[in-house]
């Protein structure tokens, strides 16, 4: 269980969640059987698959597991799936629950040097990452913290390891903050999320280095004012801090910026990649400062690699949004 305080979530969220064991479902296939997955069938224990989901999505996601063995396998096989490039597999598919909506299905995949050894495997120690990220995301939704809708998550035992998937709502017309500040650029080694989300190409948190924009077209210049986007990011950080949210990896790719709903309107900023986030009763000044410093280290990293500067006016917009 994610260490969230009971007064934050249990009374309003946990009774609406369901955890289902799918190993006993007759006719279900191993997750290794879906298209494009080169894992050996023996790498999964079919009796150690778990799903957690919103009530409205539970039956649909359970059906996906029965037929395809994994959520990412079901998404990959969907005839209308859009595949986003980046670390791991990210697919955007029509929601089977609500007409006109789309879901982002992200398969967890490691980054950095460890990825060459472990790939998409995580040791079975502590709460599963997909469950952690889903629960924190649902808690933030209830608190009113901007984040893509968290639909469900599943994880699968593979010997001493787990693999996992996360499903979030797609946020159309959205771009990660790095794409807004440094349009047309890509930076290896700093992952994101579209959530998770999540929403756009980086939905949900932790998709990592997704190169397409939120619509999957690869458009290099998001139509969002840079200063307005940074002001929105400042407001987001202030909201996180006021609700006691600690996010240890709040980099530019973990902030999703939505295009204004109308001409002259303001963009919104949503937080992504929540598997390591925590909700505290109160976030002290030191913890707040660490989050802000991490955010600006990410910005400086992008400046160094691209040769472009954020600039004092845009930095001032962030401070204005944060309220300092």
- Percentage of residues in helical conformation: 25-40%
Mean pLDDT across all amino acids = 80
The number of distinct β-strands equals 13
Distance between the termini: 35 Å
Given the helix and strand composition, which structural class is it? Answer: alpha+beta
User: Uncertain spans, ≥5 residues at pLDDT below 50?
Assistant: 1-18, 21-44, 191-220
Give the biggest beta sheet. 8 strands, antiparallel
Backbone CA Rg: 19 Å
Taken in chain order, the helices and strands follow as HEEHHEEEHEHEEEHHEEEEHH
**What is the overall shape?**
globular
Number of domains: 2
Description:
The chain has 324 residues and is of the alpha+beta class. The protein has helices at residues 6-9, 55-68, 71-77, 115-118, 129-143, 177-181, 226-242, 285-306, 312-322; strands at residues 17-21, 49-54, 82-84, 90-94, 102-107, 122-123, 150-158, 161-169, 174-176, 245-246, 255-258, 269-271, 278-279. The strands form three sheets. Strands 1, 2, 3, 4, 5, 6, 7 and 8 form an eight-stranded antiparallel β-sheet that branches. It has a three-stranded antiparallel β-sheet with strand order 9-11-12. A two-stranded antiparallel ribbon has the order 10-13. Helix 7 (226-242) runs parallel beside helix 9 (312-322). It is globular, with a radius of gyration of 19 Å. Mean pLDDT is 80; it is low at 1-18, 21-44 and 191-220.
